[in-house]
Amino acid sequence: MDREDEQLLRRRVYGADHDDPDPGPLPHWAYAELVGGPLDGLLLDITGWTPDEVETGVALATELGQFGPGGRALYDPRPGVSGRFYHSGDTP
Fold first, then answer.
1. SS3 51
2. Alpha-carbon distance 77 to 46, whole Å?
3. End-to-end distance of the chain based on CA atoms, in angstroms?
4. Mean per-residue pLDDT over the chain, rounded
5. Who's near 2: CB < 8 A, 6+ residues apart?
6. Beta-bridge partner residues of 60
7. For the CA atoms of the chain, what is the radius of gyration?
8. Which member of 15, 20, 22, 76 lies 3.0 to 4.6 Å from 57 by CB, making a disulfide possible if both were Cys?
9. Residue 10 has what pLDDT?
10. What's the average model confidence in pLDDT over 4-18?
11. Cα dihedral sign for 44, 1, 18, 37?
């Protein structure tokens, strides 16, 4: 496996700069996979989050959602599923 193949296997982290030569996850950090919606497949860094913060879910800024630039995509965990946040809608 060459370096290009390795990079394809590494997932991109939400918020990483598009020009970052290594936008993948860092070892020993905690991430949740974003499932569905405009940020599908990205990883969200949840290192240091409390269980209550994880249960609350997030509203993430994105230009790709229903409301375009300035809008936010809503992602929430599901009971019994760890390590994933599911798209639940968009908000201005």
1. helix
2. 12
3. 43
4. 86
5. none
6. 73
7. 14
8. 76
9. 58
10. 65
11. negative
CB contact at 8 A, 58 and 89? no
Q: Which helix (H) or strand (E) holds 71?
A: strand 71-78
Please compute, for residue 7, the number of CA atoms within 13 A of its CA located in the half-sphere on the CB side: 7
CA angle 17, 46, 50 (to 5 degrees): 150
pLDDT confidence of 7, banded at 50, 70, 90? very low
Question: What amino acid occupies position 26?
Answer: L
pLDDT band at 30 (very low <50, low <70, confident <90, very high): very high
Report pTM. 0.82
Nearest CA-CA partner of 32 in 87, 70, 71:
87
Q: What is the pLDDT of residue 4?
A: 45
Residue type, 90: D
